[in-house]
TrEMBL record, chain A:
GO terms for biological process: DNA-templated transcription. Belongs to the RNA polymerase beta chain family. Residues 148-290 form the RNA polymerase III Rpc82 C -terminal domain. Residues 204-225 are annotated as: Disordered. Pfam families: HTH_9, RNA_pol_Rpc82, WHD_POLR3C. Residues 216-225 have a biased composition (Basic residues). This is DNA-directed RNA polymerase III subunit RPC3. Signal peptide: none annotated. DNA-dependent RNA polymerase catalyzes the transcription of DNA into RNA using the four ribonucleoside triphosphates as substrates. Specific core component of RNA polymerase III which synthesizes small RNAs, such as 5S rRNA and tRNAs. GO terms for molecular function: single-stranded DNA binding.
UniProtKB/TrEMBL annotation, chain B:
Its main location: nucleus. This is DNA-directed RNA polymerase III subunit. Keywords: Nucleus. It comes from Rhizopogon vinicolor AM-OR11-026. GO terms for biological process: transcription by RNA polymerase III. DNA-dependent RNA polymerase catalyzes the transcription of DNA into RNA using the four ribonucleoside triphosphates as substrates. Specific peripheric component of RNA polymerase III which synthesizes small RNAs, such as 5S rRNA and tRNAs. The keyword Nucleus applies. Belongs to the eukaryotic RPC7 RNA polymerase subunit family. Residues 1-24, 142-220 are annotated as: Disordered. One of its GO terms (cellular component) is RNA polymerase III complex. Component of the RNA polymerase III (Pol III) complex. Residues 177-189 have a biased composition (Acidic residues).
Amino acid sequence: MADADTSRLCVQIVRSHFGPLAANAASALLTRGRLSLAQLIRYTMMKPRSVRAAILVLVQHNILWHSNADEEGEMLEFNTLECLMRLRFGRFVWQAEQLFGPSDTHDPVYQGAEIVQLILDHGKLQPPDIISRLSIYNPKSSSLYSQTLYKLVSGAYLKPSTLLSHNSPRDKRIKYEAEEKAKLTGFPTAKELREAMETAEARLKREEQEAESVGLKRKPKDHRSTKRKAIEEDMVDDVVYFRVNFDRFNTYIRNKLIETAAGERFNRSAALVMRATLKSTEAKQKNPTSTAAVAMLISDDENLSGLVTSTKKSSSASLVKDYLGLMSAIDNPTPAGRASSFINLSNNKVYVEFGIIGSRLQRHVLEAVARERHGDDGVRIVRLLLDIGKMDEKQIAKVAMMPNNVVRPLLAALSSDFLISTQEVPRSADRNPTRTFYLWHVDLHKAYSTLLGHLYKTIYNIGMRRQAEQEEPIVKAVLEKRERTDVAQDESLLSRMERDVLKEWETKQEKLTVLEMRVEEAVFILRDLDTVGSNEDS
Amino acid sequence: MSGRGGGRGRGGGRGGFRGRGGAFGAASMPPMGLTFADIQAMSREGDALYPPLDPLPVLADYSAHEKRICDLQTGFATRLRKSAYYVVETLKSNDLERYSDKYRQSPASQPTLKRKDLHAPFFPTEIFEGYFNPKKRRKVEKKSTKRLNLDDLEEDAEDQEKSGDERSDAGSQPVDSDYDVDEEYDNDYAENYFDNGEGDDMDGLGDGGGGDDGGGGDYD
């Protein structure tokens, strides 16, 4: 189950990708939660065969969890996060294009991107399937594809799809807790119950990690090479079904955001230095890197200008050091300075401060929304409350240097948007409203979840606009005509006017999709920035 | 001592009550620091559904990278539309047959899910089998437990529950199997119930009422 905005958006995504029948099933599951097949058939009032087809499709694409409980039979649950990730598929494939470039510049075929795209098309695939489908037209390229596949798997861009990943985490947790509790004899105390829950949680995490480490297997050792040192080599396991690892691609989106933030805060060269720092920590982002390593990654022809230096010609390495010092706010050792830093520079070690940057980016989104809706005064109040904490209305008026009658309606407007909220401090025992203090503060969690809901609604509106434009009679007729088999092969069968209509529709579609991508980036900042950092343990 | 403490508590309660009554009577300030002047000054009309935006936001230019990303994203939707993953139902249409029908895509031309493309262990077994083997499944589905044996009820409580669940599961499937089961129960009652009105004497309604009263009177 999810709130109204999320479920509406998910249903729209499912409808555009899998058709209106699957969307019906998805909408029933999202409004009513966990259902069994019989209940789903009853609520959607569709033919059982269509419902089964929809379920199979959604399970194949990892959008539906299923579990087999003893009492209830087979239950289905919707995975909203996976569904919302579908908005980013274009970005993932583009990223794969950038990372795994073409082998031959004359005939650019982006093998990595093709593999990723194929797997995203089908949800999950086995390696022999992947290679055979891609090398249909060109049998000789299958070795190239296998090599790229190996690179993708070893770089954790693809992860194996396991049986366990098809069960909802909530079901698994309940099952493990039940098992742990069954082991307790007699009446369990609160402490034992808590320990049982923690053991279950740890077991859940451990199983997930183990399952996802499958995927590569040892190459069968060559008997002839026993004289040489046996180098252990891995190759891709052919039996395993692979799916795309969204977290890995999300790190690239995050890195790009950080780089742009550094560029906006300082200058373009700082962005370059930031990019080099992030690249040098790519392998293990928790580990620090050294300034020398960063300097190495900046290519010679990039001009690191923009800093005032005492000597006329300073080497690139010293410029890098200066930039790193700048970004770590060495000149401002106060907490405020630390909160505005990008990296942590100590001795010669460079740590990128993902947590600080993440919360700062989220705050920027919050302030941008406040600015749009309530003007600069609103932003002033929000910033004041974020810095200081909880304040009374009179105090706010005094510190923010705004008259009382301006502050009051602003506070009411901001709180109706859930950006700020009150904390009641009663003066008397009976909580009389005229005798309680109302302290205003910014409840970050509530503000971010409201903003996320608004963003989902915005994306849904963009999708509806796109659908409306598509269903306008003239455009609809032309699109249907284009789908005809004879026209699909020969576009010149369309008249001049029809081609114009088509072109106009395609421009509109492009603009709406660009807008959707940009809003999606804001969703990334609010929702995924923390989790990407926390999954960086590997 | 406890009496005095109790008395004070009671007095405090009374005082508080008086304070509240007094506050209401004396036109107290509304909460959150608003004044009555502010409340009166607020507009009583509803806000417009789409208030005018000034200036109207315009889409900033997008780079070639963004265009490529958009093309890839729309590509997914187009490819999925033609694939086996887009679920369609064939409906019989009564329109006239047209020449262009042979060129148009119909639901029949949509590729369907193939069993060999899907890895069975990943899917819920009943649903998987139900989709790909619709005929075979029905024979297995019929459960034999129809009558509850009351003596065994206590021991086999769990089993009965399970089979009851499965029977209700079977009930959602084509109604044929359930129908037979129900008919066995209802037969006795069905034959005895219907009174087709042959024996009723329409004129004797008053007597029937009187008879009823008489019948009621019999209890005395």
